[in-house]
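Entry 14. Structure prediction run on the chain below.
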Amino acid sequence: MSAAARALWSYRGFVLGNVKREYQSKYRNSLLGAAWTVLNPLAMIIVYTVIFSQIMRAKLPGIESSFGYSIYLCAGILTWGLFAEIVGRGQNVFLEHANLLKKLSFPRLCLPVTVVATALLNFVIIFALFTVFLIISGNFPGLPFIALVPVLAIQVLFAIGLGMVLGVLNVFFRDVGQLFGVVLQFWFWLTPIVYPITILPEGVRPLMAYNPMVGLMAAYQTILVSGAWPDWGSLWPVTLLGILLCFWGMRLFRKHSGELVDEL
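Output returned:
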């Protein structure tokens, strides 16, 4: 692990260059250019907050704020988007950069790191706009807001581990990527993001304990909607699972790194 970290640090310029090139290619030939980085998430936040708070007037149990459901929805969708982007791009990262892997010699772990860095940059921009909305609307959660940092770190750890495992397996078994795309859609709706867990039947709720994303989403929603500290005990399972997936992903990568290029 230390050798891999040193190699990544040595190629930090390569990683940063990849992130920069991704943004440049994304907005090439666009009149507004990088302004779309702000306009797209701003439009999404306005839709979620205005539509759901003023038109639908959805309410959450125990939450009196007219923006309660909008914040609940954004807390889940924005953070789920980060998870889905890391895992979704991670499972295809070696396939998408097959030509680069064949032509250049560099630590192959630079590619997953580039995926994570790009996803985090996108998330920071979107979440900064959402934070501004919380402040302006008078719904800023206060001190518990800092708890987002460790919760986010746990989610990224879990996403990296899962993305690494799927990324290696997808090179050798191409059905993995197709199958996980379907799984991710079901996973989203089986996680209390657009609905509170309280609406589920009593017999179904215990099954939610087997969904590692439930604890993470509940932590975000507790912080941002209720302005309270999350239940740290509920995050231990997903933390341990993330660590195990990272170790498994690294082991798969080290074991098959020599075969990746040949298979591509």
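The mean pLDDT is 81.
Filed with the rest of this week's runs.
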